[in-house]
Amino acid sequence: MRPPPKIFVILVNWNGKKDTLECLASLACVKEPSFQTVIVDNGSWDGSVETIRNKFPDVPIIETKANLGFAGGNNVGIEWALSKGAEWLFLLNNDTTVDPDILQSFLDAAAKEPKGKIFGAKIYRYDQPHVIDHFGGFWNPKIAEFESPAQGKYDDGSYEEMASADYVCGAALFMHGSVVKTIGLLEPRFFLFWEETDLCTRAKNAGIEVWAAPKAK
Question: 183 and 193 in contact (C-beta within 8 Å)?
């Protein structure tokens, strides 16, 4: 029998202890499958490290001592997780809360689309929990921009099927470790925005499929 996959959840924190604590509390409700969370602290000065360590002493914290941005901070966590044998990497914004079934939903999506190695969640707006903030996106060559058709729409059941995408939002991105070994890490020059669209574009150019997974919320 195949052992369960090693899943690592990576949170980047920068002076966001309140949000990070709420995110960690939601992750604590995820019982299956097993996973390891790691926090990358990007040089916070608000007491984040001490506060988070006191509340969640079992969660390792990597202190970069500098603000490396979303891309650079995640890269630190990715490299650490891969050194620990990670099979799957879940890049998760610290200002989110997750559905308890999110990881199993991602694994189910990966089983359904085995050529897919990058999966994105259906992301809702925090203050409007029935309004979709992101559910995959596409490159529109006519306007030379990426678009997310579901963005801002009420979740009325129209987005319940898995959808092939050009990119998925980095706020909740589930990625197989082989992606990094094939195309490399996030591009740190983007720092905060567009790093996931670049990653997904490089992945698709390398023949890796990208999917939006509606059951992962």
Answer: no
Report the alpha-carbon distance of residue 213 to residue 161 in Å, rounded.
8
Alpha helix locations (H) across the chain?
Answer: 17-27, 48-55, 69-83, 102-112, 177-183, 195-205
Residues 44-76 pLDDT 10s: 999 999 999 999 999 999 999 999 999 999 999
C-alpha separations of 204 from 106, 125, 169, 213 in Å: 19, 27, 15, 17
Q: Which residues of 23-61 are buried (b: 16+ CB within 10 A; e: fewer)?
A: bbeebeebeeeebebbbbbbbbeeebbeebeeebeebeb
Q: Identify the residue with better confidence: 139 or 130.
A: 130
**Cα angle at 166 between 156 and 216, to 5 degrees?**
45
- What's the Rg (C-alpha) of the chain? 16
Query: In this structure, which long-range contacts are made by residues 193-197, counting pairs with CB atoms below 8 Å and at least 24 apart in sequence?
Result: 195/70, 195/71, 195/74, 195/170, 196/167, 196/168, 196/169, 196/170, 197/137, 197/146, 197/166, 197/167
Residue 144's pLDDT is: 77
Map tokens 């299956």 to a residue. Answer: 32
Question: Residue 78 in contact with residue 89, Cβ under 8 Å?
Answer: yes
Strands (E), 84-217: 88-93, 116-121, 123-125, 128-134, 138-140, 145-147, 163-164, 172-176, 209-213
Among 188-192, 195-199, 203-207, where is mean pLDDT lowest? 188-192
